Structure formats: structure tokens, C-alpha cells
Amino acid sequence: MTPTAKQRLRLWVHENYKEILQVGFRVERTLFSGESEFQRIDIVEADGFGRMLFNDGAVMLSERDEFVYHEMISHVPLFVAPHPRRVLVIGGGDGGTVREVLRHPSVEYCRLVEIDPLVLEGCRKHIPKTAASLDDPRVEVRVEDGVKHVAETSDRFDVVLVDSSDPIGPAAPLFGPAFYADVRRVLADDGIVVSQAESAFYEIETQRGLLAILGRCFPRVHLYNYSNLTYPGGLWSFSFASKGDRCPIADLDTRRLAACGIDFRYYGERQHRAAFVLPAFQERALAGQLTPHKSRG
Amino acid sequence: MTPTAKQRLRLWVHENYKEILQVGFRVERTLFSGESEFQRIDIVEADGFGRMLFNDGAVMLSERDEFVYHEMISHVPLFVAPHPRRVLVIGGGDGGTVREVLRHPSVEYCRLVEIDPLVLEGCRKHIPKTAASLDDPRVEVRVEDGVKHVAETSDRFDVVLVDSSDPIGPAAPLFGPAFYADVRRVLADDGIVVSQAESAFYEIETQRGLLAILGRCFPRVHLYNYSNLTYPGGLWSFSFASKGDRCPIADLDTRRLAACGIDFRYYGERQHRAAFVLPAFQERALAGQLTPHKSRG
């Protein structure tokens, strides 16, 4: 033990995952804690990870690695959609997804629908790195139930991003069939919806269920992976579905991507293509549910 | 609390990583514990992960996800080497790497050089899933210091696999320049060496150091990634260096791979290629140290 270790308590917070795994972070101090009608929200400063957001004890983001999730949920569909002007984000009250969406100059309007005002309050106060984007004039924030919102709105969007937590608690209906029928309705004819689709290793049944629902609403359904630091198991997935026939590989707008000038930290053209190559076990488990890619040319 | 939880103690073991992260597994029972002159070895039965091997408290493998590491360390070089007959494994006393090497019918001889007899003893008793391979007649096990072994042997190998633990403790010299000069010597003219190269997120400096050493010994140096469940941060890397000019993309033997009949759980042709696409931050950090791929055809 070093002298420093003797002088100071070491506080750890552990996310418990499926009763078999714990992922723990060393907490310097707690910045924000509260309970809304939906969930408990905590924001802490964690040694080596910066500020971290927890919903009901599950890690939502850390400042250290949030760029992975936020680049991958947004740039993949936005460089496949032909000319994305209007984007709808369901959930994602931390603002990280909106921040990446706004890096696309074609985007004129981005609507964020977050069910829980406490997420917005906590992140606006303590995680400006992601939440500052919510003050951009192109952004409209609505504190509403996303499921109800897509059921009732008559507005249309080029891209919908479902930036949800796990399919328990307030996010559960975001994994259901009624929600995706409505998402289809609010999408433009060649629109794309990308959704947080859980862990490749631990949640293959959830992935099958989500793809089955998407397959009933959309002619083209894919899944892609990304590696982040703070989610259990590291390798997580997003689903990709297009209402028209935009293929994420053949219809990637490589010219726009090459000219965009965005200094990506995770994403890029090769990274985009590689993300759709799934480990053999995952590919096999989801066989029959994924649309083959179009051949190029 | 459920009634079951009341009846039973819950035991957890946590790997401490860099004082900022803990990864914990629920232990059903301890199967093996001992201390050698090199390190402490523990084998436990963990809920949801099967049997797990720890060296000095760091996870080496779990039965649940060991297939990822072992397929990726072995098949990538073995499908690029033109006709691999003789393979040298340094470390890897659990036997998982040897098991995958033996799935290649061209391999006539595989030598495992493990420094610590306690690893061999523990795995042979308690992890037959990987260690059973060590009894194959094509395998010779030597209990020796791998660094000394490559310095002294006059034998030659088509592929060398450095299946080491972290660059602290007994594995530290396996990340050094003297070792790789000797590896170069024992390799056939078109031979390939692949080495465990630590975490993409946490150990970029270690990766730079290793690639710099490899770059002084080999004309062609690459890095590729894989995602496993039980190593901190999920995304880890292997280095790839060839003494001749075998490129892991252009010289992949797709015909042999397509005909091999191995039921991979992680690996495959597309997975092979995708593994060499690194996240943008890693690619940038290692720029100048990685050899460009040959153009095909």
C-alpha cells in the first residue's frame, strides 16, 4: 500500500450485470443523484473515465469512451441516407447522439424526445461535453414519451435514432412491435432507423427478437457492432433498418464521407464496412433475420 | 432478495485493472490454487463463465469466451502462412492455442514452451476443454523459459505464436527486442509471428513499443483486433509480423480457408479481414508503425 492509499478511502461503484458480472469504477465524487418517476439517475466523477452517467445503476456513458457509441449510432445511418435533413432521436437525453448528428451540414432540424427530465437536468448541469449540443438552434428538445410521440406526430424524418437504455424499465416499449410500426410511418420513403441493440455476447435472444420485429416493418434489416469500454462484455450492437432499399454497404455515400472533414475518433469508411462483419457465432445465431447486402456497382 | 439469495453466500472475485477498473465474476467454487516461483495461479468455477484461469489475479481465460482469443491468435497467421507444418507456441500453457493450431491438417509438429509448470498442472487437471490438446501426438510440451528457448534452439518454425500474459512479471521479456531478434532467427524465410498485444483502449503505448521492436526485426508489421468478454475493455489486439512479405490481407489463403471445414465460432474470411480495420483513434496513434497492405491481384 502506498501512503496515498492509506490517506484516502477508495470508493467503487459496480454495475451488476445478469448476476454473473460486475464492472466497477473508482468514484472520485458524486455530482448528481436523484429519482424521477421513471428511474434513478446518478452522475459521478470516475478516476480515469471522467464523468459517468448511470440510470438505475447501469452505465449509460463515460466521458472517456462515449465517442464510440455516439459516432456509431449516428454516422452509420447519416452517411447512408441520401440527404438527411430531419433527424429524430428517441431517448439520448445526454445529448451525445445529437452532437454527432449536428456535425452533418445537411441536417436542418434535429428533434430529441427524452422521457425523463431528470436525465436532461443532470447532463445539462454536469456533462456539457455531450449536453451542450442540446442548445444548438437546430435542436428541439421535447420531454415526452417517445413511444407516444411517434404514435401521435404527423411530422416526417429522414433518420430515426433509438438511443435507448436496456429493454427493462422505461425503455422496454422501445423494443416492441407497435413502436416500430409507428417509426416506419414517421420515416421518409428512403428513411433509416438505427437502434441500440444490446450485447452481442449476452443478448442474442434480445437481438433476435428486435430483428424479427424490424423484419415485419422494413424490407431491409442489418446489424452492426462496436466496441466500447464501459458496457459489460465490450462488444455491443446497433440494428439498422431502411424503409426503402438503402443498403449500408452498397449505398454508403463515400464521396460525402471523404469530403466531410469530421475528425472521427472511431468511425471512418473502413470502420463502417467492418462493423457489419459479425463474429461467426452471432452471424449464425441471426441467420435468416439479416438482409444480404446489395452487390455494388 | 430472493429466498435463494438468503441461503447462500455470494462470492465474487474482482480483477483490478490499472487502479481504475474492476471486473468481477461470481465464483461457485475454487478448484485449484498455488504459487510457483513465477506467479500465483487460481482456477475457479464461475457462474455463467465456466472454469476460469487467473495468473496473479488477472483473468487469462474463461471457458465461455476462450474460443475468441484462441481462434484469433492461431487461424489468422495459419491461413496466411503458405503451408504451415511446424508451429512454436510461447506461453499458452492452458493449451487453447495449441488446440486451434492442431485443427490445421498441414501442421505436423507443434511445440509449446511454457515457463510455469503450475499452469500446465492446473489446466491439465481442471480445464480439459483447452488442455486436452497437449496430449496430441503432434505436440511436444517443454517446461522452459521461452526467451531462453528461442535464443538457444537451432530448430526452425513456420509460425511462432506468443501467447503471453501482460508485460509485467514473467512475461515482460516477451515484449523486448532481444526476444524478437531470436524469433526472427527461428522463423522460416516466409514465417510469421503473432503476439498478444494488449488492450486497444488502455495500452496504446505498449502497442507502439511492441510495433517499434517488431519493425526493427521484420519488413512487414500489422495489428489486428478481437473482442472478448473477460478482458478489461473488451477490445484487445494481436500483432502480426512476417519475415518474408506475407500480407495478412492479400496473401490470405481463401481457397484453403473455404475448404477447411472447421466450425469456427468467431473467425472466418470476412472476420479475418475486418479484424485488421482498427478504430480511428488506434489507427492514428499507430500511424507510421503499420505496414500498408499489399494491393491484391
Helical percent range of chain A?
A: 25-40%
* Number of H- or I-type helical stretches of chain A: 11
What pattern of helices and strands is seen along the backbone of chain A? HEEEEEHEHEHHEHEHEHEEHHH
Q: Outline the low-pLDDT stretches of chain A.
A: none
Provide the structure class of chain A: alpha/beta
Question: What is the total tally of β strands of chain A?
Answer: 12
Radius of gyration of chain A: 19 Å
Shape of chain A: globular
Mean pLDDT of chain A: 95
Task: Detail the topology: elements first, then pairings.
Two copies of one chain form a homodimer.
Chain A (H helix, E strand, L loop, with lengths): L2 H5 L3 E7 L3 E15 L4 E7 L3 E6 L2 E5 L3 H13 L7 E6 L4 H6 L7 E6 L2 H10 L1 H4 L7 E5 L2 H7 L4 E7 L13 H10 E13 L4 H14 L2 E8 L7 E8 L11 H6 L9 H7 L4 H6 L12
Parallel strand pairs in A: 6-7, 6-9, 7-8, 9-10
Antiparallel strand pairs in A: 1-2, 2-3, 3-4, 4-5, 10-12, 11-12
Helix pairs in contact in A: 6-7
List keywords for this structure.
homodimer, 297 residues, alpha/beta, seven-stranded mixed sheet, five-stranded antiparallel sheet, 11 helices
Descriptive overview:
With 297 residues, the first copy, chain A, is an alpha/beta fold. Chain A contains eleven helices and twelve strands. Chain A has helices at residues 3-7, 66-78, 96-101, 117-126, 128-131, 146-152, 177-186, 204-217, 254-259, 269-275, 280-285, and strands at 11-17, 21-35, 40-46, 50-55, 58-62, 86-91, 109-114, 139-143, 157-163, 187-199, 220-227, 235-242. A seven-stranded mixed beta sheet of chain A has the order 8-7-6-9-10-12-11, sandwiched between helices. In chain A, strands 1-2-3-4-5 form a five-stranded antiparallel beta sheet. In chain A, helix 6 packs across helix 7. In chain A, 51% of the residues are buried. The mean pLDDT of chain A is 95. Strand 2 of chain A pairs antiparallel with strand 2 of chain B, so a sheet runs across the interface.
